[in-house]
Specification:
Helix content is about 35%, strand content about 25%. Helix 24 packs antiparallel against helix 25. It is of the alpha+beta class. The chain is globular and about 80 Å long.
Length: about 950
Amino acid sequence: MASLSRVSLVHNSNIPLHRWRRTGIVEPPRALLAAQKPLCYWPQFLSSKVVISFEVSSNARYFGSWVPRATVEVVDDHIVVEEEDKAKEKSGILRVGVICGGPSAERGISLNSARSVLDHIQGDDLHVSCYYVDSNLNAYAISSAQVYSNTPSDFDFKLESLAQGFQSLADFAKHLSSSVDIVFPVIHGRFGEDGGIQELLEKHNIPFVGTRSNECRKAFDKFDASLELNRKGFVTVPSFLVKGSQSDKSDLSAWFARNQLDPNLGKVVKPARAGSSIGVTVAYGIADSLKKANDIISEGIDDRVLVEIFLEGGREFTAIVLDVGSGFDCHPIVFLPTEVELQFQGSIDVQEKDAIFNYRRKYLPTQQVAYHTPPRFPVDVIENIREGASLLFRGFGLHDFARIDGWFFPSSVTMTTPDETKFGRTEFGTIVFTDINLISGMEQTSFLFQQASKVGFSHSNILRTIIRRACSRFPHLASYNSTSHLLPRRSKSSQLNESFPRRKVFVIFGGETSERQVSLMSGTNVWLNLQAFDDLDVTPCLLAPHNGYSTSKDRVKKENNMSSRSVWSLPYSLVLRHTTEEVLAACIEADEPDRAVLTSSLRNRVMDELREGLKKHDWFTGFDIDDEIPLILSVDQWIKLAKEVQATVFIAVHGGIGEDGTLQFLLEAEGVPYTGPGAMASSICMDKVATSLALKHLGNMGVHTINKELWRKEDLLNKSVPEIWQDLTTKLLCETLCVKPARDGCSTGVARLCCLDDLAVYVEALEECLLRIPSNTLSKAHGMIEMPNPPPELLIFEPFIETDEIIVSSKSVNETARGLMWEGRSRWVEITVGVIGKRGSMHSLSPSLTVKESGDILSLEEKFQGGTGINLTPPPVSIMSNEALTRCKQNIELIANTLQLEGFSRIDAFVNVDSGEVLIIEVNTVPGMTPSTVLIHQALAEQPPMYPHRFFRALLDLASDRCT
């Protein structure tokens, strides 16, 4: 079995003795140890402990050689800033600086992009250093652990103590010029795509990936870009520019009259310089348009706002462009575009009146959007989109890669463009290009990776291709492009050519609970991280839902009849979707002959163009994703296959059969190893009432449970709301309640009820089978509440536990609080903590202090979506002392061992900051494993830090070990 061993050189500047700390079985060559140079320090870190770590691979791929890879670690709350060994410059190792963050509201997405880039380009031939620019354009050198472990709010909170700040952007640039060979900016929106960071790099002659500053400025401003598109002969949509307070109703009215537009029709109002999603909304009427434009200005999003006519009947698309030229010779090739289909369900969606692809729909898993690659357009239209995007890429002088958005209006939709000769007119309708994204999002399932995988590129291959293409523009980097060892990570399709045996792993996700989309995110993240290990053959698998979601009772009956369930074994490209429904639809589509033939034909056409363009580059070694088809099996067949190939199953199915013990029982019956707790423990933890009963006897030991009242949905619908409210508040001895599904996940359907009117709203949502309760519908402010679908049959009511409000600021409030404002009246705070290990000896990771950004209940987004929510890991000593933290962790371990947990789980609880006593909320045996989940934060807080791929590998090995 392959493993990674870590050898660490630990030095404390106050102790003149170097000492080696070794874990694992592999020891570095003595000659290499003797050759180590003295450590170099940044002046301000002279009193810090420094850890320089080397990951040593014992995989077959590295037999006969020992290749160190320097990393940065956080020790004793200080950052260690790497000094590159001068020999690295001569060794053929390309030093890449990834810069993320920025002043835009999309900086959370930027952090997600940085994580993804770091995951997929780091290697023995390419070394990554990470940097962050905050909302005030202050630059910092950060550790890779920080990239993985923080969302923007707590990220900024920790900058002063964990990051190396630069006095100015000029100092930052000077550092970059001596520390990296090329910069990969992943800042979305302002300063990233408007030419800001590019201009800084150009002034200091620092090579970078992407378009130059002048061209960025022209393309980023939507109003200026529209004018330029019109000049270059493209069809454009009329737009009106609102600049500060200079525009009034008469100006806007005159524009409507001049363009013969009905002012009462819907208008798209969007910032001119704020990316493709932030601040985009729909307005109705002149006054509403001007109001929403001024709202965007007053919120500080942008002082230039566009008002555009919203044309009904259009179909949105987006296309990735890859430049395969050499030097400054541009040769853009457009991948297969993606059609973005908005889908509206229920009365709430109709009331929203924003039929646009906004921030929430783009970055959160939601059934409001479906994607189709290639688009369901006529082939001639698809080819016209590809041709137009290529011309646009050339015409604007773009470099390396970009994403181009637009709309296709069928011929049945009337367009007001007078010139019929402009590019975009076809016999089937009109194509309009609207947005140029110079730094496309690079999250795991982003359009970049979706479209790249359709034409043969893995995540690693497309990112490294982009970097290599950028290097070709800089003569002094040519030597890196001549090396033959810079290869993409091995993909699943190339594993068949490997000679050494690999351990089979099936990662299963999906299902039909309300958290199935989070399950898809978790499973995708696990699958991609485990692919880093050459001794593993990892197959992603979708647990398909039953057809229809009639009632919870029907679902339970169907789940008990497992013979009717099916599992899809997925090829690479089909995993990269935003919803399980999309994945399933893509699987079914693969069996539709006409659609499959069309997709294959278009795919081959694009791949032929790419081969022709890339053949002149000796660094391109080919595509690494095959055009495979999905395989459907019954659950029984799938489990038997797992047993036959001796696979370990990594369970990432949240709720339902993935978390109630059903799937675990079936796997145990066939002797198939799997991750997480056993069937009995899973069943108990899934039932919140059973969990409380199992822990009730631990009260004298510092573990407490919350009183609960269990109600059937049927009873809630048939009794009067005042009667129910009186009964609950009397029995629970409280005036404020918390309601949640009895046997569902940890986020959906959870709400705070302060009065009987709140209860009436919640009961109505159950009766109407609403998908969500809109923000601030209840009496106390709250975020959007995602509801289980179908509604749960059993619900729990319990007293709402009042905790102390914690306010986090990125600026220091005083020397001790470091930006934390906390009065500490109740002395109780909410935490979430992971436990890992073997049954009977579970280890508690460092708890995360959860801070709600909207309302009193953590939303689904705050728990799992990068860029939202605040988690302070570990709790600051200004709130919880180290002694109380130690007692808290001991109580968490007591809970885990009492429930006979094993492998890993997550425990949510309230903790008393003085005593460490714990009030249990719930236990999740299949916790969220998304890129921004707190489990990753907590694993990175361990010493030494456990990076995501090592963390998931440890969980996998625990599953295998207990079955041997």
